[in-house]
Amino acid sequence: MASITLDNVGKVYPGGTRAIGDVSLDIADGEFIVLVGPSGCGKSTLLRMVAGLESITEGEVRIGDRVVNEIEPADRDIAMVFQNYALYPHMSVRQNLEYGLKNRRTPKAEINRRVEEAAGILQLAPYLDRKPRALSGGQRQRVAMGRAIVREPAAFLFDEPLSNLDAKLRVAMRLEIKELQRRLSTTSLYVTHDQLEAMTLADRLVVLNMGKVEQIGTPLDVYRKPASAFVAGFIGSPAMNLVPARAVPRLPGSAHAGLLGFRPEDLVIEPDGPIAMKITAVEELGAQRLVHGEVGGEPMTVTMSPQAELSDMVHMSLPAQALHRFDEKSGRRLD
Amino acid sequence: MKRTIFSNQLLPWLLLAPQLAITFIFFLWPAAQAIRQSFLREDAFGINTSFVGLANFEALWNSSQYLNSLKVTAIFAVSVTVLSMGAALLLAIAVDRMMKSTRPYTTLLVWPYAVAPAVAGILWWFIFNPTIGVLPYVMDRFGYDWNHVSNPGQAMTLVVIASAWKQISYNFLFFVAGLQAIPASMREAAAIDGAGPVRRFFDITLPLLSPTTFFLLVVNIVYSMFETFAVIDATTEGGPAQATNIMVYKVYFDGFVGQNIGSSAAQSVVLMLIVIALTVIQFRYVEKRVEY
């Protein structure tokens, strides 16, 4: 158990390309932090820097109160779950779980105790003597988690661990991971590009874009008060509408010359509402209906109930508190 | 894949005919001839030929020279295989660790494979020539007397090096491909699991390479036993005192130089059985035993 601190951490590749710039983050002991962002935003690189698989060229990473910049991955007291699980295919499940402990010369009795315990927690007991290739995707995922658990490390690092699973299994495993982390209360750093996964798992979210932190906060804070237009568009599904104020002149916030943001579910259908949208496409999701269209030449989306009548045009209004305003140039939130 | 149905019964046979003819004329017929001759004995002038049953094989079994040749072949095959695979693996690991310019190195390292065995033999013969060679000159400076013409151990060393050198390229290519097929995350996971570079190599890399290794093992044994004829012929000609007279060279020497056709044929039948055995082992086990 330990806290993790990132102090102005940056990474510049030998060629001069900057992957990560100036990230500072305090992770409390037992906290579940999710790094989220589009592919190529540097979230995996940042995680690998904490793991010791990538060098840190700027700033300092501390695990507990130890600066780990120059410490080998093995000695950082962390365990990592990889996207492709990285199970050793020639070893049985038991051997996979034992490997990290054997390398650390853990006494045999202690190894057995921990393996049995992890196998119990993860329901792997019947599969201990199988090879990874004889397991299903979800079971392999569990073995990868088990390998992290038996080490009893100061922190878990997850690198998109669920992205190789099918949608249904992903939801189930997501819950398992969350439950497991609560139970063990081990500090966790989790990387994903899936904003839904990020929202459901995180104690706090770190939204990254092009190697920089856009916002750090609890999922609800980030959802309710996105710090930038990027975060506003990235977190939440369907994505927030972002339009220049001049496209919707009858809205209250349209006086300033920035970007206006509002979530599709916040728009209210109203026959004489100030926003008139020309419908271009409709997506039926069952419980609701996503209606796409354009207002003043700008694309816009609204969620409607599946019972509502549809014509070519839809008129809507927006409660003042549902409106977010962003600077058009920097994209930062204006309050 | 598209399946073509021939309405004409003759056409498929015509299309196969060239390959079938080559297989028959150059492989099946000589093999049959060898098997037939291994049961016959010719008199010294080639006038009378008589059926002698297994006498030729019995004679081989009782010949100290042939048993010596078996031993020499075993030592030679194991040495060539170990040397060429070991060196190739080291080079492949070095290239696999490189970040940049992997390609030029790989290309350069593959060149020796294009050299014909006889040329490779001559090349090493020059380098190691006791009179005019570079290496004996250097070794002489350090007080080591190199003369593979009279020293059996040195002669064996020479043919092993000359034979292995060429094969390193081939093995190297397979090892590089094998190493690159191992996901980086596997080694990273092992690193986090507390395994140092050496442990990682023996616990993770080597087992994951085992299909490649086993395939190369069989290929290299076959190579060293059968395709090294030219190397031997160009360097030591089996000498000194039978020290490098491997089985395939002895077949040639007894048959074409010594004109003992029956014995030579019997020897080639033995060789044929060894090839068949190796091939069976490869096909039976390469898929089954060496998996993970």
From TrEMBL, chain A:
GO terms for molecular function: ATP binding. Transmembrane segments: none annotated. Residues 4-235 form the ABC transporter domain. Keywords: ATP-binding, Cell inner membrane, Cell membrane, Membrane, Nucleotide-binding, Sugar transport, Translocase, Transport. PROSITE patterns: ABC_TRANSPORTER_1, ABC_TRANSPORTER_2. Belongs to the ABC transporter superfamily. This is Sn-glycerol-3-phosphate import ATP-binding protein UgpC.
From TrEMBL, chain B:
InterPro entries: MetI-like, MetI-like_sf, UgpAE/MalFG_permease. Pfam families: BPD_transp_1. It is found in: Cell inner membrane; Cell membrane. Gene3D superfamilies: MetI-like. Residues 70-282 form the ABC transmembrane type-1 domain. It is a multi-pass membrane protein. The keyword Plastid does not apply. The chain crosses the membrane at residues 72-95, 107-127, 206-226, 265-286. SUPFAM superfamilies: MetI-like. Keywords: Cell inner membrane, Cell membrane, Membrane, Transmembrane, Transmembrane helix, Transport. PANTHER family: BLL4140 PROTEIN (PTHR43227), SN-GLYCEROL-3-PHOSPHATE TRANSPORT SYSTEM PERMEASE PROTEIN UGPA (PTHR43227:SF9). Part of the ABC transporter complex UgpBAEC involved in sn-glycerol-3-phosphate (G3P) import. Probably responsible for the translocation of the substrate across the membrane. Belongs to the binding-protein-dependent transport system permease family. The complex is composed of two ATP-binding proteins (UgpC), two transmembrane proteins (UgpA and UgpE) and a solute-binding protein (UgpB). This is sn-glycerol-3-phosphate transport system permease protein UgpA. It comes from Paracoccus albicereus.
